[in-house]
Amino acid sequence: MKRRRFLTSSLAASALAVTSSGKYLQAQTQSDTGAREFYELRHYRLSMGRQKKLADDFFRDSLVPALNRLGITPVGVFNVSIGPETPSMYVLMPSLSVETLATAEARLAQDAEYMKSGAAFLNAPADQPAFDRIESSLLQAFEKMPRLKLPAATATHGPRIFELRTYESASDQDHKRKVEMMQAGEQEIFAKAGFSQVFYGDTLIGPRLPNLTYMLSFQNLAERDRDWDAFRSSPEWKSLSSQPRYAFESIVSSIVNVILTPADYSQV
Length: 268
Prior knowledge:
Blueprint: H1 2-21, E1 38-45, H2 50-69, E2 76-82, E3 88-95, H3 98-102, H4 104-108, H5 112-117, H6 119-122, E4 133-141, H7 152-155, E5 161-168, H8 172-193, E6 196-205, E7 211-218, H9 221-232, H10 235-241, H11 244-247, E8 254-262
Antiparallel strand pairs: 1-3, 1-4, 2-3, 2-8, 4-6, 5-7, 5-8, 6-7
């Protein structure tokens, strides 16, 4: 527990130091108009068998309600339906405060209701672990889309799938150009093609840097294929992607792409 608190405090200090430096982030408060959200995106790697039910019970009954009590909402919980590793789950945690995300684990440890309801997951023995590994990334929303947008189907718990895409770049220069490109017209082309855009995030802390991650939503795979066909054939996309500033070299070196389905208790 002491080690966890130390790591949480270290993350908070690092994140706040970056924020105060002004190099990448701007200090924000809950009252800021147009403030950009931060996202913690967790990837839980699971094994076949009991871990999936244990994780579902924990997320539904313990983690999501406790995060909501901290002001972290809406919390998205997703199952990987098409991707390189299954079973696995993603948890998306948005907040206007980077400190709220960085100190969440320490504050959850003081939440008696969370510790009690989540005991089976939190106290799982080493020979029967609740998960294999967790990967976590801290992202900041793009300036042109500063807040997460819920798909229309979320309110009615209608059918929906999500596509989570991570674009890795070979250098910081290429990464910055890709972020710029997406905000210089690519997001508008997505909208014209019919995409429901959930969030765009520049990864500040996490594996395989530099990279950006964004999430799209569709009713089903057929709608996804139709929207991507419209995007790829768009004259606006062909014009944007051929501009010398973005086409002088491959500014995206690798794409990681997974298709997700929301848990029935997901708030996204």
